[in-house]
Structures are given as C-alpha cells and as structure tokens.
Design goal:
It is a single chain. This protein is α+β, with helices and mostly antiparallel strands and 81 residues long. It contains one helix and four strands; from the N terminus they run E-H-E-E-E. Strands 1-2-3-4 form a four-stranded mixed β-sheet, with helices on one face. The model has no long low-confidence stretch (mean pLDDT 91).
Length: 81
C-alpha cells in the first residue's frame, strides 16, 4: 500500500477536477491556477465530479508519478472551494 503522507506535504485541490487530464494537464493546473511548483516534491490530490475516484500527482526528482484510485464502495467526502 502506498501512503501518500510518507511522500511529504500533501495538497488537496478542492472542488471538482476534470480527471481526463494527464500529467501535463494536472501539472499545468498546479502551476497556473494555484501558483505552486509541480516539481517541488509535494503530492497534489485531485477529485472528479463523482467523488468515487481521485488522482495524485508527485514528482520524485526523476519523473512524475500519476496515481489513480477508484473506490468500489462509497465516495470521498471531498472539500469544495
């Protein structure tokens, strides 16, 4: 099991994110909308509209990790804007 908190600081992107975005789209969102550095080694969490799945974006110094999780039962209680 991957514990995202073990990777360092975690940012939760409030509200709904279009999860069709890949690494480049999510990194651009982090940089332009939130004025944060996607290459900082921080974890950025994004949730889709149905709240039963999320993506995590993480730079490990050599490349990006894009993790995708879909819950079979239940939904996330995701913060709004």
């Amino acid at each position: 099991m991957i514990r995202l908190s073990d990777l360092g600081q975690v940012y939760i992107v409030c509200g709904k994110t279009d999860l069709r975005k890949g690494i480049d789209g999510l990194a651009t969102l982090v940089k332009e909308q939130f004025e944060l550095d996607p290459f900082s080694g921080k974890v950025f969490l994004f949730c889709g509209g149905s709240k039963d799945r999320f993506k995590a974006l993480y730079w490990d110094g050599q490349g990006f990790w894009l993790l995708y999780k879909r819950f079979v039962n239940g939904k996330l209680n995701w913060p709004r804007k």
